[in-house]
Amino acid sequence: MSVDTTEIILVNESDEEVGSGEKLWVHQQGLLHRAFSVLIFNDDNELLIHQRALDKYHSGGLWTNTCCGHPNVNEAIKTAAERRLGEEMGFTCDLDFLYKFHYKTAFENQLTENEIDHVFTGTYNDFFEVNPAEVIAYRWVRVADIIEEIANNPESFTFWFKKILKSQAFQAFVAENHVLS
After folding, report:
1. Comparing 3-17, 36-50, 120-134, which segment has the lowest mean pLDDT?
2. Which one is catalytic: 68, 82, 88, 134?
3. Which of 29, 50, 119, 158 is deepest in the core (most CB within 10 A)?
4. For residue 166, what are the β-bridge partners?
């Protein structure tokens, strides 16, 4: 299991900072904390998804959104999302805030995600090289196709990614930007 000892931001249900804690400990305790998810599209209206490295502290080997993570203490959420996009996927681009939501889910290894997840979108079309410590595979896929894949094989995708795709905010984004087909 690969875990860093970074301090992450604890929040209340209004997403106000209330403290911090070491990343693994926060997930062992199931404490509410701040997180982000990034969704990158290309000019062909395809979404970049990736398969998490097998030794991630949870959800290893599952397919998920372009990147995700936690802001460090004293780090703005958008700055953290941009940083992590570079660390995981090997590129950065302009990101736009879409919405935030709360979710909580427990994993078989006794860890719990209890997050207020800030979702960002962006567009990227150039070359990139992923970090193999974070990503074992990636692909560009149409939203309609990924929704069908999830319906047929939900256990292959992360909990939060499935929630994002079902959200009203994401559905409105897809409709407004014509990225479903």
Report:
1. 3-17
2. 68
3. 119
4. none
State residue 76's pLDDT score: 96
> Active site residue: 82, 88, 113, 115, which one?
115
On whether the pTM is more than 0.85, the answer is yes
The rounded distance, in Å, linking the Cα atoms of 115 and 110 is: 16
Parallel/antiparallel/unpaired status of strands 46-52 and 33-41: antiparallel
* Interatomic CA distance for residues 171 and 10, integer angstroms: 29
Amino acid in position 73:
V
| Type of residue numbered 85 | L
Written out in words, the top-level CATH class of the domain with range 7-177 is: alpha beta
Residue 60: band (very low, low, confident or very high) from pLDDT cuts 50, 70, 90: low
Is 13 among the catalytic positions?
no
Distance CA 55, CA 33 (A): 22
Provide mean pLDDT across the span 114-133: 96
The encoded tokens of residue 124 equal 């990227």
